[in-house]
Write a structure and sequence with these properties.
single chain, HTH_ArsR_DNA-bd_dom, transcription regulation, three-stranded antiparallel sheet, about 120 residues, 3 strands, transcription, mainly alpha, DNA-binding
């Protein structure tokens, strides 16, 4: 039998909670709409292709063609992923003539991405 499961079962049968003021915790908890938005935002980072796109755009502003070459993917597939990231306000676009350039939406995206990457590489 899994020892951690036993500990959980034991807690469920004998735990009467802590002395924490749960109302105070509840007041500071994230609201439902924000929780859904945050979960959706993290879903955007759950796809390896989108992570690679963000990683490339972390380096510099790039057009769809350049991103297609870097990721060895078709332009329509790259555009589809970029549209998703743009709708999530993770990337933004800038038109120069017929060329559309993409970059990270703001410094927060860069910070979150870099910190998360550092965390995954931390032992």
């Amino acid at each position: 039998m899994d020892p951690s499961l036993t500990a959980i079962e034991e807690c469920e049968s004998s735990c009467f909670g802590t002395e924490a003021d749960l109302n105070q915790v509840r007041e500071k908890m994230i609201d439902e709409q924000s929780a859904v938005q945050l979960a959706d935002w993290f879903k955007a980072f759950s796809d390896p292709t989108r992570v690679k796109l963000i990683g490339a755009l972390l380096q510099k502003e790039l057009c769809v063609h350049d991103l297609s070459v870097l990721l060895d993917m078709g332009q329509s597939a790259v555009s589809h992923q970029l549209r998703y990231l743009r709708n999530m306000r993770i990337v933004k676009r800038r038109k120069a003539g017929k060329t559309v350039f993409y970059s990270l939406d703001d410094v927060h995206i860069e910070q979150i991405f870099v910190q998360t990457l550092q965390h995954t590489k931390h032992n």
